[in-house]
Fold:
Amino acid sequence: MEARIEAGMKPLINAQNRVDNRVLALQSEQYVAEMTDMEQFSVMIEHSQYNLNTGRIAIPAAAGNSPSASLFHGSIVSSRRVIYTPSAFARESLLYLQETGSLKAKKPHTSARSNLSSFLFFIVRSGSGELSYNGQVTALRPGDCVFIDCRQHYSHSTSNDLWELSWAHFNAQFMPGIYAKYMERGGLNVFHPNDLPGFQGALTALYELASGDDYIRDMKINEALAGLLSLLMRESWHPEKQSGKAQKKEGVRAIRDYLDAHYAEKISLDQLSREHYINKYYLTRVFRDQYGTSIGNYLLHVRITHAKQLLRFTSDSIESVGAAVGIPDPHYFARAFRQVEGMTPNAYRKTW
Structure:
């Protein structure tokens, strides 16, 4: 066991001279690397000596003479961070963390990156600065949050009112789709949240998880990142503010309630417009603004949901089920059901 750990220490000791890309400056006092196994390598902030039981070794900060070391622990900023390398399973199947931490700027500076396979969320805790992203420059002040796709070029800089930031870099195989949905829902790259403590707590939880040694740490980090994304999605979705009229929201809710109650009937956009005294083009736009989908797609999902209930809990024929939910054409019903569920109604009944 000791021989294996000694072999594992060699690349860490070599890092004193070359500062491996995985081992950046972490805290002004020392670097710390933790190896839980040969496939997972996490750099952590902790004042400790090498321990045969945990596999931890403290690498003095003096080892780093690279620009990275001076950037994070020299005269420019002071920071504490966890640089995290997830397991292969996490990279393939989960939301995974790349880096999290906090920093305090010591002098005005700019950080810029391009083509980084990562998504960045950070909070301005104090001070001020600006973000340059997607062709726009936005001023940042205390309490502002930033959520960006780092595959695009970006830079952020502190003003003379030196800022403090907390952040997390993270990714997933499916993150581009999540980010696209966030933007589609009206999400902003820079926003001042209603629930700032919630976002602060999410970053704190990520830092504590990444600093720990729980054997299901990747799963817990996935859960914490999902919570952060839920906060972001909720924050992005304020159609009543965009509309400026509360009655607009109430009018669209009445349309939704009608669809929920009358899904089995033949429904057309012209009919909804006529019965609810709303211009159909206006109705189409406002419904999508409020619920993030079209009227037709919403109605289809309501019908398929009811069809699934009938397929599971009755012996009605496929044709009867389709007719009962407002899709009397059996061929169209089968096609629509497959579109939503990825299988035919008959296959769904046999599976469930």
User: Anything to note?
Assistant: The two ends are 49 Å apart (CA to CA). Residues 319 and 331 are 9 Å apart (CA to CA). The chain has three domains: 1-74, 87-93+100-237, 241-351.
